[in-house]
Amino acid sequence: MASIRKAAAVGGGVIGAGWVARLLLNGIDVSIFDPDPEAERKVSEVMKNSRRAYKTMLPDGLPKEGKLTFAKSIKEAVAGANFIQESVPERLDLKHKVLAEIDKHADVDAIIGSSTSGILPSDMQTSMKHPERLVVGHPYNPVYLLPLVEIVGGKLTSPGSIEKARELYASIGMKPVVIRKEIEAFVGDRLLEAVWRESLWLIKDDITTVEELDDIMRYSFGIRWAQMGMFQVYRVAGGEAGMRHFIAQFGPCLSWPWTKLMDVPELTEELVDKIANQSDEQAHGLSIRELERIRDDNLVAIMDALSKQNKGKGWGAGALYKDYTKRLSKLAQKPALSKAAAKAVTSKPKKKKG
User: Which of these, 87, 93, 78, lies nearest to 31 by C-alpha position?
Assistant: First the structure.
């Protein structure tokens, strides 16, 4: 299986810094370029939270961290890297400029992944001389904990690059899912977008508040989705007859005028203020960093609990978590010297001066 010798990150925002954290905590050296003068501080804060989460995952010790270098240019960042992750803002013109620069200076065998959450890889490849090595590698925040990465190839991406990308992402404990067809927003964000649209209408129409809506999610289907996906949950809901019975029973509901999914509420200043103010109240004065730590503790606890299920084999994300923590634990263990080797080292005579 292919592995990452050295990594480069271009863009150090929330997602870019998350990639840096996952890579470093797997013992991989990372060189990062981000023109933001605050980039080093921002990455450092994400690293503090990621280390805290990994210490909870691995109480017996972490692997030796990779070395982090802040490069002064894209050219400097990608030098010698066989894996490069681009995480710049979602503007196609910026993607073209950055990817062209990466492509120009990257090693010939390097895989280039883009963290874009919705731009088609075919549209990004147009600025590249070697477009066959570009894939979308779309993660979920926090990247250092959530294992899923959606891999999407463009029209010019080679099958070999997709397979190599799959192996590289898997080598750092991720769950790569190759999306079969190139579509905007891929799969995960399309699902999230549908829920987000309906949620905005429910807030706008004063059906519920931000906190109440989140409670409805986290006290019900959110827990179910953490251990089974939608279709497996619904299969169980169909009883002994399974999915066919579920569709027969609830399928007609899909034609009822329940949803506003095809309409988008106008994000007026009034609606934005309503959502933002309710969100501020929901936070109860907790800072973003404090909320991130609470989120990380919850995610680790959920995955740890799932790792003990299925007769100890783990279930879903918990099974991957079990394998990932085992691998990191082995990486953290330094091979002990044999008694003979240790004796030879300690008894080695010192050279006399002169």
Answer: 78
Type of residue numbered 25: L
pLDDT in tens, 107-133: 999 999 999 999 999 999 999 999 999
Cis peptide before 63 (omega within 30 of 0): no
For residue 353, pLDDT over 50 is answered with no
* DSSP assignment letter at 109: T
- Indicate if the alpha-carbon torsion angle 295, 296, 298, 303 is positive or negative: positive
Please tell me the distance from the alpha carbon of residue 121 to that of residue 204, in angstroms, as a whole number. 34
C-alpha dihedral sign at 142, 143, 148, 152:
positive
CA 135, distance to chain mean position in Å, is 15
Name residue, tokens 């179910």: 224
Q: pLDDT band at 343, cuts 50/70/90?
A: low
Q: Environment class of residue 56 by beta-carbon count within 10 Å: exposed (0-12), middle (13-18) or buried (19+)?
A: middle
pLDDT at 326 over 50: yes
CA dihedral 248, 253, 254, 258 (to 10 degrees): -170
Pair type for strands 111-114 and 134-139:
parallel
> pTM of the entire structure?
0.90
